[in-house]
């Protein structure tokens, strides 16, 4: 009898563990552009995601998780990040952590200039993307990998000697995207590229974000960069998360609504949220990643959140 009771208890625990798994697992691999350095988003809702390095990070993964919750989607979201690193670091040091389970979807990116020692050269990104994708496919042959093409750095365009110094602010994002497109073409597991840098450009060109933080921020415009004009502000990371959300789910980011909870919790106005959602949608729609459609939310998300909307 004691054996039967023990066996039953074991089966119950096992069954509970299995049934508690989310429908979709998503892993974010990146650096400070993923963990949201320089903004309040860095530790935002860190308890909603699993930081595989146990550093208490929320960042872009937590924003993505919030969006999926509000959309009624069932995602388990994880992250593995290290500041100032490209995919080569994660390949050399973190495969033991990354390889603990198979993943359904993986979002990843390299260094902001494609190569930290040779800016605007995509060779390292192409090689490491292929290596990481092969490793991830070994864990799950059906894994979908999404590469995040990052934004134009104002410090490299306006102040620092770089391949982009003196160029239009949009040019760095165009060049970075070209590098990621080449990396995607060389890795079978890569489904598509998150056009984050180009969404930033759209926000600037649409007149909701300031193009140059060094000459002051115009009234009523958002500054997508943080204090170092290199990393993003809450606005910039929010826009990044919106693009990732739309690209991974196929859902129109505007369907989250101008009262979207995370934007409110990070202190954004409804007009700002609406503008950033539009910039994300415009970029995604231009690549046929989403279809314009309202989203009917099937359930409320934690009623204690967003009690007051602006």
Question: If you had to describe this structure to a student in words, what would you say it looks like?
Answer:
This protein is of the alpha/beta class. It has one domain (23-286): Rossmann fold (3-Layer(aba) Sandwich), CATH 3.40.50.1110. Helices cover 43% and strands 10% of the residues. The chain has helices spanning 2-19, 32-35, 59-70, 87-93, 95-98, 123-139, 154-159, 169-185, 196-205, 234-249, 261-265, 270-286; strands spanning 24-30, 50-51, 75-81, 105-108, 144-149, 190-195. It has a six-stranded parallel sheet. β4 (105-108), α6 and β5 form a beta-alpha-beta unit. α3 (59-70) crosses α10, α8 packs antiparallel against α9 and α9 (196-205) packs across α12. The termini are far apart. Residues 1-19 have low confidence and may be disordered.
Q: How many helices in DSSP terms?
A: 12
CATH evolutionary superfamily: SGNH hydrolase
Strand order of the largest sheet: 2-3-1-4-5-6
Ends distance:
61 Å
- What is the number of E strands? 6
* Overall mean pLDDT: 91
Q: Report the oligomer.
A: single chain
Helix content: 40-55%
The CATH class is identified as Alpha Beta
Q: Give the SSE order as H and E letters.
A: HEHEHEHHEHEHHEHHHH
Shape: globular
The CATH architecture would be 3-Layer(aba) Sandwich
As residue ranges, the low-confidence spans are 1-19
β-sheet strand percentage: 5-15%
**Rg over CA atoms:** 20 Å
Number of domains: 1
**How would you characterize the largest beta sheet?**
6 strands, parallel
What is CATH's topology name?
Rossmann fold
SS-based structural class? alpha/beta
